[in-house]
Amino acid sequence: MAEQTAAAPKPRPSWLKPLEHPLVVLGELSMFAGQSATSIFRRPYRVGLLMVQLEFMAYGSMFVVGLTGLFTGMVLALQTVYAFGLFNAQSLVGATVEISLARELAPIFTCIVLVARVGSAAATELGTMRVTEQIDALETMAVDPLNYLVAPRIVAAAIAAPLLTMLFNAIALFGAYGVAVWAKDLSPGTFLNRIQTLVDVKDITNGLGKAAVIGFVVTMIACYRGYRAEGGARGVGIATTQAVVGGLVAIFAIDYIYTAISLSGPQQPAGGLGG
Amino acid sequence: MSPPPAPQPVIDVQDLYKSFAGFPVLMGINLKMMEGTTTVVLGASGSGKTVLMKHIMGLFKPDHGQVIVDGENVSTMNRQQLAVFRERMGMVFQSSALFDSMTVGDNVAFPLREHNPGLSEREVREKVKEKLAVVDLHDVEQKFPAELSGGMRKRVGLARAIVREPKIVLYDEPTTGLDPLTTESVDEMIIHARERLSVTSVVISHDIGSAFHIADRIAVINEGRIVEEGTPQEVRRTKEPFTQHFLATWFGRT
Predict the structure, then answer these.
(1) Residues of B in contact with A142 (CB under 8 A)
(2) A99: pLDDT strictly greater than 90
(3) What is the DSSP pairing of strand B225-230 with strand B217-222?
(4) What per-residue confidence (pLDDT) applies to A101?
(5) For residue A267, what pLDDT is reported?
(6) Which residues of chain B have a CB within 8 Å of the CB of A3?
């Protein structure tokens, strides 16, 4: 709807055809991301709107993130106790669970919850504003819609995702402890001691960084989809679906890239296996 | 309802061309609008009238030609210049485009709070009340847009558009989809706004009855070109075939 220019159609090689649409989307998304990211640093700074979004994203997601975390920790403990029981290594259950949680499961599951709760809401809200001309109205009132609508959301997501990941981590570990120690009769000392010797702070900060990056990107995708929605209620529905599906794919793609980069440096295991 | 004499055009559209994905929408538009007048751009759906309006707002950049508003070339403005320029413009949307998460009062106050942070909350509220009174609305500040009728929403949309006292107000299909009585009241609203605020009004419409009611000048657009332009009386007596055909749908075939 708001395309400013249109390139004259040129004949393209036929092998390019199936790639054309994804490339166009990727290109538009990159431009949108660049413009939105720069709009964060343009005045006025929307602190009030940022707080509203933070309340919705971080505070509003606490319960569902906590619940997801509790069950994830519990089931992870069950599985690990079972698997490590096969070769009598139950003493490593605590550390294994916490490394999996901190490095992988907490940021990823938190971001999945964020896509479901926040990405869908952002795409629907912006999409509805687009098709009811509210975004055009902002523009005609000389208010930059990226600065007003998108910037607070992507910044809030980049802050909320690591915060929620910490919460997830804590509650999941509690759940794992409960299952391992109370239900599976592991020694509490062994469970906790191995965590202290084997889990590095880097494992946790790595997961938090990952959450921030993913939270930022998936919310950006959701805003992009909503911002470009067209064609009434159906268009908003399509935008929301695309936002959630695109967000989910992005989570796992970024997860791999981020992990590959963070593990590519010189690696030193924190403690060693000991006994 | 005679048009006041106007020395030079406030809006001057010169030889405007625009195409989308190779499909031409505007093909050489020339149009002048005088200060304090109401010009209705009349045309069927898909004739390019909304695209023309978005050029006047600076939302689109032309492929060729230019739009001069108040002596300034809108088509070459950058982001900051456009932001300053749009202070002089108010726009009323077809769907009213009110922010549904805000009350009516906050909607009307929005441009003030964004651009005039020096105003106190009391001053903002007074201005909101005053502008709502201009469009004949009273005690609706606490309501949400969803609680209002379509005609009232349009009035709130106008109040929001004029709250910073623009020189030019653009209306995008103000009467589309309204019943005859509400259409009448929106027409009155546009006439009152011009009388009370002496703004230059540009109305994009396909509503012939409404156009002849409110316009000082009518420009008929068809397939990206202005095919007829003049006072309502002149346009009524046109010999131009498309305009004759278009008007016949309303006035009946002669």
Answers:
(1) 82-84, 86-87, 114-115
(2) yes
(3) antiparallel
(4) 94
(5) 60
(6) 20
